[in-house]
Write a structure and sequence with these properties.
Length: 78
Amino acid sequence: MHVTATELKNRLGQYLDTAETDPVIVKKSGRVKSVLISSSMYEKFLSYEDAYWADKAKQAENDGYLGTQASADLLKSN
């Protein structure tokens, strides 16, 4: 659903309810400015991001990255 910023302001409660099931795309001056989503969808996106970065960290370790503590210990021993 696409709405203008003015429509959002005038009918905020209605669009908050809509955002519980579908994203509400907010336009201002004809350009997309924001997307209103439910808190559960936001939490889901955060969990996806956390999983992505955890996977990247695991890949880095598998590729030979020592990690912060191991790097610090190695530097201290020299």
